What does this fold into?
Amino acid sequence: MAGSPGSRPGDRMRVAVVTGTAQGIGAAIASALEADGVRVFGFDRDRVDITDEGQVESYFAALPQVDILVNNAGGVCGQTFSPLEEVTDESWRAVVDANLTGTFHCTRAVVPGMKRSGWGRIVNISSGAGRTVSLTGIQAYAAAKAAQIGFTRQMAHELGRFGITVNCIAPGFILSNPTTQRQWESYGEEGQARVLAGIAVGRLGLPEEIAHGVLFFVAEESSWITGQTISIDGGSALL
It folds into this structure.
């Protein structure tokens, strides 16, 4: 029956899977959940390629019941801006698969167990690029991140009656890994000043600030919040 209690996590330690935990935002989310008393399984691409459905299915099949899924893995796959007419099908698919198809694979893997237990929390890490435009200029990245937000809404609608909430965070500019560090340095002093001028609080964000948003969405007290996308960006979305 939809929403039946089953093996609710209140009866045991909650179990979470966080994708993309090698560094930055993913690592901060995993640490925050562990500090909150959650048993965390984290991985990066060197362990599980989320674009490969077989690898995803095998990984999740070996885990205990998953209560929390944070779809954080993604990124620009080492790409830089190219005019649209120069974008190849291969480069487009690489970014869309890493950000959107991987989210689909992992979500599909956990939903049956969450339905059985009548409880689940899914948080998708999108980007400010999915709500406005991408500072990288990478068309596939902006498209995939916007699609993650749409996927969040649709899954919230589909899964809510089973006691599963699905929400999304759209981070602003955060120096979270070597790629974002190189991007920041490429702007130079004038470009960096322009970015900061567009942020209401006048500074870049920290990975831990995205982790705080995840803790909010996965809390029992947030059980009536679903299908939402919150921008954690220092006020960039206001300008």
Notes: The CA atoms of residues 94 and 155 lie 23 Å apart. Confidence is low (pLDDT under 50) at residues 3-7. The chain has one domain: 11-177+206-233.
